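Consider the following assembly input.
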Amino acid sequence: MSGRKRIWNRVRPVFAVSIACAASSAAHAQSMRDVEAIAKERGLTTQDLVAAAKTYTPSGQHDDYVMFASGGHAGQVFAVGLPSMRLLRSIAVFTPESWQGWGFGVGNEILEAGFPKGKPNLWGDAHHPALSETNGDYDGQFLFINDKINARVAVIDLRDWETKQIVKNPLTVSDHGGTFVTPNTDYIIEGGQYSVPFGSEYAPISQYKEKYRGSVTLWKFDRKKGRIDKSKSFALELPPYWQDLADAGKLVSDGYMFLNSLNTEMATGGIEEKNPPFEAGASRNATDFLHIINWKKAVKVYEAGKAEMIEGFPVITLKTSIDEGLIYLTPEPRSPHGVDVTPKGDFMVVSGKLDPHVTVYSFDKIKKAIASGSYSGKDDFGLPILDFDSVVEAQVEVGLGPLHTQFGPDGYAYTSLFLDSAIARWTLGGSYGSSTPEPDWTLVQKTPVHYNVGHISAAEGDTVSPDGKYLVSLNKWSVDRFLTTGPLLPQNLQLLDISHQGTNMPVIYDMPMGVGEPHYAQIIKADKLNPWKIYPEVGWDTVEQNIDPMAPKSKMERVQRNDDGTVDVYMTAIRSHFNPEHVKVKQGDHVRWHITNIERAFDATHGFAVPVYNITASLEAGETETIEFDADIPGTFPFYCSEFCSALHLEMMGYLLVEPE
Amino acid sequence: MGATFLDRILGPRIDPADLSKNSIRYGTPGFLLLLARVLLLVSLFLPYWQMELKAPQYPDGLHMTAYVNKLEGDVAEIDGLNHYIGMKSLFEAAKLERASGVFIMIGFVIMLELAAYVHTRWSVLLVAPVILFPVIFLVDLHLWMRHFGLNLDPDAPLSNAVKPFVPTALGKGGIGQFETMATPGVGLILATVASVVLIIALYFHRRAYLPLVKQMQSSAGKAA
């Protein structure tokens, strides 16, 4: 008996497993053998299958992270889910976008507020998105992004993922050192790029050194209102170097910010006059200047009324900055791109594009050098220069063309290598050193990427608590990675798995981005985002984020002719009709068309599109929009719902009848 | 003079000495009637009936909950969908019932209160409507649904696809791409428990007072 029992005990688990396998294969008629067959047919390696298993996200399963990527020339922001690398949606920012009706009836006044010198500029060169932070960590409330071409900063509310504000920098015409937020999002940093006379006024280039200036602007953010408060914002005048990327200090370095610069040679180009071109003139010297700015002290100086009004904007002049000890310079390898502050705020990592090292500055040493007051010299404008050797902690040889650095949770730093087309993983030293098996300040691994990587973004990789896990390499060229799409090719966003230590850091997904150049991106844990599913109340003003008291409501629809000759249309939209359906106006009338989507169902969006008058709007459940236009062209204009909202979507239309004079 | 009409309805009173001696016998029906009153009052605040509608584009389903006095949930959304099949707005249904629901329930509580004082078989008249209430609720619901389902606007957009029908008041049903599941709410269950409690209460009521009634009748006979 005991013998039989023993055998049964041994057989039972096997029996159970084979029954389970039979059951599951009967249910789906699939097994690992099928996977092997498919892999063989498609030429997939085991590595490929593992990468697929790491990234494939079945229908209905949600991503763990959301990456907000700059849309580059598209002037937008793209939200991408990780690890699936699926494009979730675009967010219209600087550029009209017809799906969202952005600039065609929605957000027109926001776009207009950003017109430089009042001139309609309907594109943007979106560069660096920055998520709002609380105590140096992403809080998922707001997203900011700069526009390099016209030096503008936009505020996106992450409750409804819509742009709420665009501010134009009154001093500089181009920016690059933005956007970066201070650890509690008190200020949004916007560093300029190409020096111009303030306000982009005219001055001959021969007066470059005297009249052209750099700047960095601190935009005060009013979190409660969800807006930049221009009246509490100010800028610092900087030498006419081309300030580049920036980062805010955190924890031990909170209160400071760091800006790179190039062209400290103050080259003025002029290849046509046999002068050295900018590319040569601006990279002649072996070093440029890292700007170290005590912004908390600058705020005090500004609040003490020591700023000068230039172009109607408060500016702390170079002289004041020198007198008050706000700005210090220190040499950095020439033509640097990124300056990135380590998670504890104790080191600043600078990559000189033309130098194979990353240069790591110690904030502790910077503080000591400033306190000692012994500088190695002053620049042409009188700014004190800290001695390079006294502030540098380490230089790590990582490879050719280092650009940007991000951080993991485990003492690793990651740097993009433009020329090598690779991502370098290297170890930090100091208090981080003990968490990695490798020695401090050492290159660990270089994973090839395809090709010409610019920025990289690790999951929460620039915060006080990086998540690791994923890193996205934002590559400029894709060459042979996808089917040829004509001579203009998509960019290639490659996902790397960085969850293991050591040299294990494979590329696991390629995502083509054929809509613009995503310069920088930030990756936030999805559960930190808490977006609305529908607008909180029917009749929601999405600019004020409140109920619009004038919003059309059910049973109050009407066309109202006012004494001053204007017409107010109060319209509601619900599946599957507009009310009213006949809108009769006279040629020359100024029309204010108020329209509310009175739906309460999740995803019940209606479009509102009018021909000839160039109007389209996306109305999400509860949203109210007011669209103004002059009915200057007489005629019969069928307007309709442009979102396939229901079985009777085609019937959701009406007529705008403009009676001739 | 014999007993008044009211005395005949109310029946015999209990001798205080008898009451203290047989407190359980007389107390049981009183307690059960009180319990039923409490159950009914609590049920006022709880849903009596709910329906879940499932369709591919509503992965979380649509939900509708009926209380004695109100209709809650995705009623506006369901109405919006119903207009495609030409069904009237659900807010038009059972208006009188919803308006009077709370008063009827208070009426029930008063009737049960009174029933405790009526020691003759007439007490059944006061209790029976309350016992029947859950059934009346469901029958009323069914009749309204039948009325709405059978009286669809023949000119409605989906009149070709969806013919007049009788929605299911309890259990599984379906309409168009929707699967429906109608279930009784906690309130209705409490009211049903109250009905059972009341039937038991009537039994103990009769058992307690029947001897007294008989005694009264025989003494009345003798007196005559």
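DSSP finds seven helices and five strands in chain B. Ask yourself how this observation constrains the way the partners meet.
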